[in-house]
Amino acid sequence: MNKILVGVAAVALVGGGLWYVRSGASDAAVPAGTAAGASGAAAPAAGRGGRGAVPMTVDVGTVGRSEVVDSVTVVGNLIGRATVDVVPRVAGRLESVLVQLGDRVTRGQPVAKLEDRAIREQVNQVRANIEVNQATLKARENDALVARNSLDRARTSFERGLLSQQGLEDAEARYNSAVSQVTVAQAQLVSTQARLDELSVTLSDTTVLSPVDGFVGKRNLDAGAFAGANTVILSVVDIGVVRMVANLVERDFRRVQAGAPAVVEVDAFPGEQFSGQVSRVAPIFDPATRTATMEIEVPNPGYRLKPGMYARVQLTTERKPNALTVARAAVVDIQGRRGVYVVGDGEVARFQEVQTGLSNVDRIEIVSGVTEGTRVVTTGALAIRDGERVVTADAARGAGSGSGGRAQTTPAASSRGAS
């Protein structure tokens, strides 16, 4: 058994040696100009940036002039310019509610009516009292006139010695008393008239008026319900202008000022933008949230925007119409340095530090470091290194299509096809 195993191992070793010799001879016979030979020769020189390395394909753009806008985006819910609860001035039972939910109303328009029969009865009674007071006043004035005439006669008689001092004093007392009665009657008339005016106001208050222009946002009571002096019958919201109250963080506070233009977008109207502006910015920060409150007003002439809608607002904080800009993808940060890869002679990319300014979605301002017209790497800037050769995507596509056309007409290709 052992002899058999030793024999098998010997045969395997001999076969392996023969295969190795033939393989080595075959490889040695391959010409140096073949693909295998070329690959073997290029392998030692391969590497990033090395001589003979394949250039990286990138997109190249130029530094140019364009408008750049700096903005801050906030989100929140829209509210009406004013939301007012309609409350009756007097308590009473509702005779009717004249508007429905969603109805448009104007300032001073009647929206509800309270029962006023009891107040009308009081008004009629007070008017009757006024007539009585007027008649009483007339009588007191007549009494005062009679007392005045009696006093005049008493003075004449006293001067002639026909009346004593006591008689004259009695006549004067009667006259003064009559004048006092006239004064009392006048006061009673004025008091009754004031009561009538008060009841007239109360009577007019049984008609509930809208305090603002707007739409009925809520309706809480129907006819027949009792409404107290603090009972909300309905709510009216003014949406001629809608507002959004948002919070500003500290880093954005200095960038946003009252009057800054705003662009508002809502999900109800996708792709549509509404113009507004910042109306107010609070001068203090909330210590709990470290934010300042601001209000954004948006004109709403068609009443399309509704309170409660979720809105995204972009605030323009600064605008430069002719800034030196470059694509955002071209600007990279390497070891704490910000810069771009400038494509120079020989299609070699060199890192150039720059100072940036404002930025938007696709462009960023270049304050210093490069000039207008400079060619820089855009797509692919994060993958290359300083001094590395590059080739533009357009040039790579053109070279690929050209080499493919030549390969179809070479004699070698024809002979391979014939064989």
Written overview of the protein:
With 419 residues, the protein is of the alpha+beta class. The relative contact order is 0.16. Helix 3 packs antiparallel against helix 4. It has 4 domains: 89 residues, Beta Barrel (conserved putative lor/sdh protein from methanococcus maripaludis s2 fold), CATH 2.40.420; 49 residues, OB fold (Dihydrolipoamide Acetyltransferase, E2P) (Beta Barrel); 88 residues, Orthogonal Bundle (Helix Hairpins), CATH 1.10.287; 90 residues, Elongation Factor Tu (Ef-tu), domain 3, CATH 2.40.30.170. The chain is 35% helix and 35% strand. The longest helix is centred in the first third of the chain and has 44 residues.
Give a short summary of the structure.
The chain has 419 residues and is an alpha+beta fold.
User: Which sheet architecture does the biggest sheet show?
Assistant: 6 strands, antiparallel, barrel
Q: Indicate the CATH architecture of the largest domain.
A: Beta Barrel
Q: How many domains, in number, for the residues?
A: 4
**What structural class do you assign from the helix and strand content?**
alpha+beta
Shape: elongated
Termini distance?
53 Å
- What's the level 1 CATH class of the largest domain? Mainly Beta
What is the average per-residue confidence, as pLDDT, rounded to a whole number? Answer: 82
Q: Please tally the helical runs, counting DSSP H or I stretches of 4 or more residues.
A: 7
**C-alpha Rg (nearest Å):** 50 Å
Q: Estimate percent helicity.
A: 25-40%
Strand fraction: 25-35%
Q: What is the name of the CATH superfamily of the largest domain? A: Efflux pump adaptor protein, beta barrel domain
Number of strands: 21
Strand order of the largest sheet: 3-10-13-12-11-14
